[in-house]
Amino acid sequence: MSIKVIKPTAAFASLLPTEYLELVADGPYASPKTINDLGTFKEIIAEHPHCAGCGVALGVRLTVASLPAPADTLIVGTAGCSFFGLAQAALNYSCSAFGNQNAVASGLKRMLKIRYPDTDKDVVVLVGDGGIADIGLDLTLHSWFRREKIATIMVDNEVYGNTGGQESGMTQEGQVLNMAPKGKNFAKIPVFELARVSGCVYGARVTVASPKKIGRVVRKAILLAREVGPTYVQIYTPCPTNFKFPPQQTINIAKKAEEGYYSFQEFISDDAQAYWEKNFASSTM
Amino acid sequence: MSIKVIKPTAAFASLLPTEYLELVADGPYASPKTINDLGTFKEIIAEHPHCAGCGVALGVRLTVASLPAPADTLIVGTAGCSFFGLAQAALNYSCSAFGNQNAVASGLKRMLKIRYPDTDKDVVVLVGDGGIADIGLDLTLHSWFRREKIATIMVDNEVYGNTGGQESGMTQEGQVLNMAPKGKNFAKIPVFELARVSGCVYGARVTVASPKKIGRVVRKAILLAREVGPTYVQIYTPCPTNFKFPPQQTINIAKKAEEGYYSFQEFISDDAQAYWEKNFASSTM
Amino acid sequence: MSITPYRVLVGPEGYLPPAAASRGILLPEKGEALIEGAIVPEEEAMQAIATKLLSAKNPFFFPGPQLLWDWKEGVALKAQAVKKLADLAGARVIPMPDYRPKYPMINPAVEINPNHPNLTIWHNKIDVCVFIGVHCHYANMALKIIRGGTSCYTIALCGEAGHEDAMISLCCMGMPELARLTEIIQSMKGEQAA
Amino acid sequence: MSITPYRVLVGPEGYLPPAAASRGILLPEKGEALIEGAIVPEEEAMQAIATKLLSAKNPFFFPGPQLLWDWKEGVALKAQAVKKLADLAGARVIPMPDYRPKYPMINPAVEINPNHPNLTIWHNKIDVCVFIGVHCHYANMALKIIRGGTSCYTIALCGEAGHEDAMISLCCMGMPELARLTEIIQSMKGEQAA
Predict the structure, then answer these.
(1) Which domains does chain B have, with CATH numbers?
(2) Radius of gyration (Cα) for chain D, nearest Å?
(3) Domain boundary assignment for chain C
(4) ipTM over 0.90
(5) pLDDT, tens only, B7-56
């Protein structure tokens, strides 16, 4: 996509749905917006079909509001709750077979590099915990081993949400769920540690209780992936439907997790740190 | 299998191939043998269809000579050079679809625990680098996350050997191979580090230049897997055919690697260490 | 061997109608067009389109992203010409701004997408529709769904090779062809008025 | 509907012969047996086995692990009885000690495995063979390979439900049945000698 595309033809402008007209007049495409501007501009994702209080929907909204170059970004997704929001977003979006997302993203990134040698095209994987930690773990890790220049973002609701509540590898040990009545019997998969060991040049672990941190780390992950190497962001996105808490408690649940087992963590390689200091150190972000 | 099985019926004993008669009279089943006794007894694997000087064949021989209880051991393998040797070995052996070995081993281990509640049945995955680090990485890591009580042993020849020499994830960066004429462009996958992060209670990295070390770590890995949790041994097994060195140089190549990038490494969890000290500290191994 | 040729007729043909191409319908060459699966001269198809539009109870144009967004030179002018054509034919317009599967919130009165075109057709009681400026594979998908589930007569004004899955399809539709179709409708309206 | 029943005849039937079960061949009940796919009384099948063995040029017994290894009470005695039977029938013995695919070193003169039974049969020019003490699914596999690629006549002396893929198969083969078969061969030899 290019900024040019985000201009209606005069003959049909008045017929476009309001959603599009607002995006054109007041969206994030033409002028740089950050998460700090949330509420002052038309968001790329305005409506979504998620459950009330959905942490994943919030994680997706915060992530797409943090993209450094939305018009030149391609999101790669896969099956799961994360898909619902992305299908509604006004972004280039490619849905892959369950678990294939990092392999598909690797190919798209390489192809875009050949097709648009002079433009930065950001390829961002944005999927759930099941897609990354369970079904797609091999392909995810291999994209990191190969040093593919893509950012991988996990919206971690610690459950297979839209299929009725099965445990995922990211579910906490002992957690009882609709489809895990005896409780999960092994610990949360340490994907954040795996990212560090497997070649990611930058990693961050955050929760939806800290939108500004999400804004900062998503932008950093994408900008570093552009030039240095693979990056990883893991966002805790609590699920009221399956964990059976009131929808208005999502942020509180996330805040409590952030004070405990889901504390803010970040790592950066020496290369990435040097590149960041040289190019973005003066940035307000 | 039980020791009982390793006794021919009188009526047919004279008709059995020599290979079997020698195993009965002088093999490792009835009395405990270790790698230190190699050369003094009939080995479980006597002939193999590998190339001259094959490091994998040597790695497989050393491993099966190190089994603490061969008659009660089930080896799980997969496609690749490692399969050739195991298909020739006088051991219970199950071949899984490429990459499925740790999932198959998990199921077999659980089933054997139910079927033989009072006997230790060791389930040992013994496969190549392609099976573990590439095709089966997801299933391997997940068996570790789930804390399955199996030992995973990689015979790492750093190449897909029997299909003509494609790079594997374990090939060193820059290595040129028959089917990788431009050289591999990313580093060896850190499976040993992944094992540490992913829940293995014991890990060891060795080469075929150190048979006694192999004997010690394989035995330790299997005994710890019996009671404590998943374990991992990675054995460097150089390939003369694809790396084009003379077959008689295999041990020298491994020795040189051991002095460099393939140094001996070991880790053990606190639990495993405590269990080991309590039960095997007085052992000569 | 003699077989009855497949005809691309108004639906509802059933949940999953076959792709017309798989039943032997061929695309037209330049100067030709398709009417219900048969290749005819372009002029004949234009006459048929004009007749269909002018006799429709509730005709609609569905302009796609290639006409809605001002993405390259010439698009703005073409959009103008199409808008004029629709107005002349007395057709209303519902845009297809992109191809997202926007469930469940799509408003069928203001928007159509290729994943559920039947909703827009049912809700607006559309009996004749015109696809223009929709990318090929999305147009094919939507045309099949419409033929499968609705009784709407589909017309494709295609700038490329044409669409076998529409009941009438032109190909190679540029400014001159748009002008000629407009002229035909204009004159047919004159005759009707006379 | 009338169909010609499938017959389990001596090969070579082709690279991949069908499993006889898939062609409608049923297993015998106790007291019955199979000859070339047809259910017959056990006694009739024993007579046929004796005839086949005594008229063979080069008959072989292939005892499997259940007879070669002394793994439970009674096996040693049964092994003795089978050895006696083979000797009486003038058949030689090649053991199948386990089921490993021992490529490429297997010596077909001293060993047979179910993955390449044809090699042992070709090299030793075996025209009649007897399977006994071989676990079911390995016996089935080997019997199909033999029927597919060789002209060897296969006989299964099965302790369980029998083998549709052998040309003659007994079932429920215990010590009394072994004794009866030995008796039949003994008396048939006496007649031949007389």
Answers:
(1) 51-170+187-280 (3.40.50.970)
(2) 16
(3) 20-193
(4) no
(5) 899 999 999 998 889 888 888 887 888 888 988 888 888 778 899 999 99
